[in-house]
Amino acid sequence: MSILYLLIPLTLILLAIAVWAFFWAVKNDQFEDLEGPAHRILFDEDENDLRPEERRRRAEARRVTQDDAGGDPAPDNDETSPR
């Protein structure tokens, strides 16, 4: 019976910490976009899944875009890159 004098306050403290953590997460926008990561993982276009000619065409398009923007070209991932 005397253990209840320890367990009840301990439970209330843990409940207060859980409520604080929940409100902190809401305040810091942790629940802002719940579906976005799930959709991004399904529709992610992995460069390694493309055929070599498609990879070259995308790398060329990136180079042209980078040249137009005045930046350094991004490294392309053709079949000579280590896997």
From TrEMBL:
Residues 45-66 have a biased composition (Basic and acidic residues). It holds the Pfam family FixS. The keyword Transmembrane applies. Residues 45-83 are annotated as: Disordered. InterPro entries: Cyt_oxidase_maturation_cbb3. Keywords: Membrane, Transmembrane, Transmembrane helix. The chain crosses the membrane at residues 6-26. The keyword Ribosomal protein does not apply. This is Cbb3-type cytochrome oxidase assembly protein CcoS.
